Amino acid sequence: MSDTHSSSLLAIVSHAKEYGFIYPSSEIYEGLQAVYDYGPYGAALKRNVQNLWWQSMTQLHSNIVGMDAAILMHPRTWKASGHVDSFEDLMVDNKDSKKRYRIDVLIENHAAELSAQGEKTRAQELLEKLQALLQAEELAGLHTLLLQEKIVCPISRTANWTEVHRFNLMFATKVGAQEENADTIYLRPETAQGIFVNFLNVQKTARMKVPFGIAQIGKAFRNEIVARQFIFRMREFEQMEMQFFIQPGSEEKWFNYWQQARWQWHIALGLTEEKLRIKPHAQLAHYAKAAVDIEYQFPFGYKEIEGIHARSDFDLKNHEVASRKKLQYFDPELNQNYLPHVIETSLGSDRLILMLLCEAFTEETITEEESAKTRTYLKLHPALAPIKAAIFPLVKKDNLPQKAQEIFKSLKYDFPLIYEENQSIGKRYARQDLIGTPYCITIDHQTLEDDTVTLRERDSMQQERVHVNILRDFLLEKVSFKSILAKLPTIDSVLI
């Protein structure tokens, strides 16, 4: 057996569709750009990931609770948060192709081309100019830089550009029965604001003391113009966010803690540590005092999967002013009121799924005697795999299906299983490999004699004979979240 081959994004996209993980949305109508549907195994994988994250936040930590805020919020929420005025991309249109592009993406792609051609110094200088112009919000300067570098539209191959303009990323809709009297509201572009406006509700009803966190999983919507790289950047996506409320002045301690804790969480999933890195932000968001990204090396390069941000008291302060409602916390230990500061961990659920698929997609060349063949399988952590085990009767006769069904029924209340009796056992093994099922259990004639079955492990393909009585306990040990959660740090040691 040879080393695994590196996988391309195209191969992963094809595999995800063919084996029931992710489909283009509305495909029978030619699809909708940057919108995707999760199939049977993709939905199960996503649910497993979300449940693991939820438990690692709310179950491991006595001072983190969960909530589920509505997608639709009062429009003043987004004015107070700064999204109405500043949640935008800087865009430029090509007059010939009629296509719209993000100016920073055009220039960054050009810099990457220069670097690939050996002009790394010039590429770095170009990126530094770009950052300076973005920070100064010099739209005219960005347009001039685009022309000076002779950057052309990928479609028309011309540099016939419009002026640079702002484009707000929020989706607007109407609330009200009559169009003329309806109010404009927005689909939320992030889930964090639902936590901030409920800060005191949660604190009081859950009887929480600072420091404490509020976790949430939910949909968010952004009208991305540059939506690409499969499910990495979508217009409808899901976030797993936790806002951790702390005493002012303790930002450095908690920022460092959550940066390390989130790094260890990704490692515990079985990811290759060499493919992960922590990258500080070169340019901070309007609300941030400090920020880093955890990035993964996708087939298309290092990209962010999770951000850790020190948000100061920006959000609570702005909502307090805009709502004219007091949001301060009374600290009984200090005997004073204050607005807590916030450390945020924000993880893209869909990006995490793509990362897991990229990490798990494995192609191996297996040499048998003088021939070689390629074996493809998904090397998912057993706790995250959509299906935990498959039950196979060796043949469809001699009471083997009846015995297999008996074992299937005894395990199905504890684990998601597949029962299959069609085609050869080799083809059935191969199908389960392709969806990442960690264990296959085969019932044969010996099973009828001594109640033992053949247990096959996905990655090694090794088989062993085990008694049916140990199957449940074996699977519980191998596929339980405990195998991941036990590796994670808890906050208790920091609070002492």
UniProtKB/TrEMBL annotation:
<feature type="binding site">
    <location>
        <position position="102"/>
    </location>
    <ligand>
        <name>substrate</name>
    </ligand>
</feature>
<comment type="similarity">
    <text>Belongs to the class-II aminoacyl-tRNA synthetase family.</text>
</comment>
<dbReference type="GO" id="GO:1990742">
    <property type="term" value="C:microvesicle"/>
</dbReference>
<feature type="binding site">
    <location>
        <begin position="304"/>
        <end position="305"/>
    </location>
    <ligand>
        <name>ATP</name>
    </ligand>
</feature>
<feature type="binding site">
    <location>
        <begin position="344"/>
        <end position="348"/>
    </location>
    <ligand>
        <name>substrate</name>
    </ligand>
</feature>
<keyword id="KW-0963">Cytoplasm</keyword>
<keyword id="KW-0030">Aminoacyl-tRNA synthetase</keyword>
<protein>
    <recommendedName>
        <fullName>Glycine--tRNA ligase</fullName>
        <ecNumber>6.1.1.14</ecNumber>
    </recommendedName>
</protein>
<keyword id="KW-0648">Protein biosynthesis</keyword>
<keyword id="KW-0067">ATP-binding</keyword>
<comment type="subunit">
    <text>Homodimer.</text>
</comment>
<dbReference type="GO" id="GO:0004820">
    <property type="term" value="F:glycine-tRNA ligase activity"/>
</dbReference>
<dbReference type="InterPro" id="IPR006195">
    <property type="entry name" value="aa-tRNA-synth_II"/>
</dbReference>
<dbReference type="InterPro" id="IPR002314">
    <property type="entry name" value="aa-tRNA-synt_IIb"/>
</dbReference>
<feature type="domain" description="Aminoacyl-transfer RNA synthetases class-II family profile">
    <location>
        <begin position="124"/>
        <end position="386"/>
    </location>
</feature>
<feature type="binding site">
    <location>
        <begin position="232"/>
        <end position="237"/>
    </location>
    <ligand>
        <name>ATP</name>
    </ligand>
</feature>
<dbReference type="GO" id="GO:0004081">
    <property type="term" value="F:bis(5'-nucleosyl)-tetraphosphatase (asymmetrical) activity"/>
</dbReference>
<dbReference type="InterPro" id="IPR022961">
    <property type="entry name" value="Gly_tRNA_ligase_bac"/>
</dbReference>
<dbReference type="InterPro" id="IPR045864">
    <property type="entry name" value="aa-tRNA-synth_II/BPL/LPL"/>
</dbReference>
<keyword id="KW-0436">Ligase</keyword>
<dbReference type="Pfam" id="PF00587">
    <property type="entry name" value="tRNA-synt_2b"/>
</dbReference>
<keyword id="KW-0547">Nucleotide-binding</keyword>
<dbReference type="InterPro" id="IPR036621">
    <property type="entry name" value="Anticodon-bd_dom_sf"/>
</dbReference>
<dbReference type="InterPro" id="IPR004154">
    <property type="entry name" value="Anticodon-bd"/>
</dbReference>
<comment type="function">
    <text>Catalyzes the attachment of glycine to tRNA(Gly).</text>
</comment>
<dbReference type="InterPro" id="IPR002315">
    <property type="entry name" value="tRNA-synt_gly"/>
</dbReference>
<feature type="binding site">
    <location>
        <begin position="222"/>
        <end position="224"/>
    </location>
    <ligand>
        <name>ATP</name>
    </ligand>
</feature>
<feature type="binding site">
    <location>
        <position position="190"/>
    </location>
    <ligand>
        <name>substrate</name>
    </ligand>
</feature>
<dbReference type="InterPro" id="IPR027031">
    <property type="entry name" value="Gly-tRNA_synthase/POLG2"/>
</dbReference>
<feature type="binding site">
    <location>
        <begin position="348"/>
        <end position="351"/>
    </location>
    <ligand>
        <name>ATP</name>
    </ligand>
</feature>
<dbReference type="GO" id="GO:0015966">
    <property type="term" value="P:diadenosine tetraphosphate biosynthetic process"/>
</dbReference>
<feature type="binding site">
    <location>
        <begin position="237"/>
        <end position="241"/>
    </location>
    <ligand>
        <name>substrate</name>
    </ligand>
</feature>
<dbReference type="GO" id="GO:0006426">
    <property type="term" value="P:glycyl-tRNA aminoacylation"/>
</dbReference>
<dbReference type="GO" id="GO:0005524">
    <property type="term" value="F:ATP binding"/>
</dbReference>
<dbReference type="InterPro" id="IPR033731">
    <property type="entry name" value="GlyRS-like_core"/>
</dbReference>
<dbReference type="GO" id="GO:0005737">
    <property type="term" value="C:cytoplasm"/>
</dbReference>
<dbReference type="GO" id="GO:0070062">
    <property type="term" value="C:extracellular exosome"/>
</dbReference>
<dbReference type="Pfam" id="PF03129">
    <property type="entry name" value="HGTP_anticodon"/>
</dbReference>
